[in-house]
């Protein structure tokens, strides 16, 4: 019995080593696409910022068009007033026309100023869009590169995991069914099925073990399960 459990324990420890490696690699497989998502989010961020700016520029350009129409109307009016003004007979009429033309001209100046100011803002927005476009292109390149690297890495890791899984049945040979089931159960529930003893304590959960169990684990006379986490205890 003594020899038997020692042997089984050795096999289970090898099994745990392999399972830990698989778990680590699988965590990598899981993490990798997450890294990519962060980069893809950055691209979406640029798209959103650019959309805001483009929408704003569009609204502003529409405002420019409105003012340009208004401006043309005032300019047309001035032309008309000038023609009419050339035919006045009295000084009073002349002054009235001149004042009306001046008013119209004032409106034209105001509109022209506004148009220039708006176009200035549009230009700034469009320059910013162009800037974002460059940054976005860079980010897209980075994503493509990162994706290629990740896919390559994932393929490597996947191959390694597959290889390890293929090795697993060999390690199971000779392990009694009952003890194997115990291992698999804790492995499935806790990730790691075995835990080393640190003095009288389980190194995984910190629970203190009875003196009998510590003794049995140290001497490998029989399977000892941690009272706290159910892991198979061993003295390393
Ligand atoms: Zn424990």
What does this structure look like?
- Helices cover 80% and strands 4% of the residues.
- It is rod-shaped.
- The chain is mostly helical.
- The model has no long low-confidence stretch (mean pLDDT 92).
- A hairpin with a 2-residue loop joins strand 1 (194-198) and strand 2.
- The protein is built from 4 helices and 3 strands, in the order H-H-H-E-E-H-E.
- The protein has a domain at 28-162: Helix Hairpins.
- It has a 3-stranded mixed β-sheet with strand order 2-1-3.
Tell me, what is the CATH class of one domain? Mainly Alpha
Shape, principal axes of CA atoms: rod-shaped
Question: What is the C-alpha radius of gyration, as a whole number of Å?
Answer: 41 Å
Figure out the total of helices: 4
Reading side by side through the largest sheet, how are the strands ordered? 2-1-3
CATH topology of one domain: Helix Hairpins
Strand content: under 5%
Bound molecules: zinc ion
| Overall residue-averaged pLDDT value | 92
> How many E-type strands?
3
For the largest beta-sheet, the strand count, sense and barrel status come to: 3 strands, mixed
Order of helices and strands: HHHEEHE
Classify the oligomer: single chain
By helix and strand content, what is the structural category? mainly alpha
How much helical structure, as a percent, in the residues? over 70%
């Amino acid at each position: 019995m003594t020899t038997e459990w020692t042997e089984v324990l050795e096999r289970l420890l090898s099994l745990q080593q392999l399972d830990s490696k698989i778990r680590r690699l699988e965590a990598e497989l899981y993490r990798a696409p997450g890294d990519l998502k962060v980069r893809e989010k950055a691209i979406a961020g640029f798209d959103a910022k650019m959309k805001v700016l483009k929408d704003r520029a569009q609204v502003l350009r529409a405002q420019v068009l409105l003012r340009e129409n208004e401006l043309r109307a005032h300019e047309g009016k001035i032309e008309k007033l000038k023609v009419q003004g050339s035919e006045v007979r009295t000084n009073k009429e002349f002054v009235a026309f001149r004042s009306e033309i001046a008013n119209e001209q004032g409106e034209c100046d105001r509109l022209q100023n506004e148009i220039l100011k708006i176009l200035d803002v549009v230009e700034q927005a469009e320059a910013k869009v162009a800037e974002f476009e460059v940054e976005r292109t860079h980010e897209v390149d980075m994503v493509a590169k990162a994706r290629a690297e990740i896919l390559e890495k994932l393929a490597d890791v996947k191959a390694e995991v597959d290889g390890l899984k293929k090795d697993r049945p060999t390690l199971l040979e000779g392990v009694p069914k009952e003890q194997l089931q115990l291992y698999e159960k804790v492995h499935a529930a806790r990730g790691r099925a075995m835990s080393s003893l640190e003095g009288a304590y389980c190194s995984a959960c910190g629970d203190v073990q009875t003196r009998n169990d510590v003794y049995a684990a140290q001497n490998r006379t029989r399977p000892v399960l941690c009272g706290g986490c159910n892991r198979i205890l061993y003295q390393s």
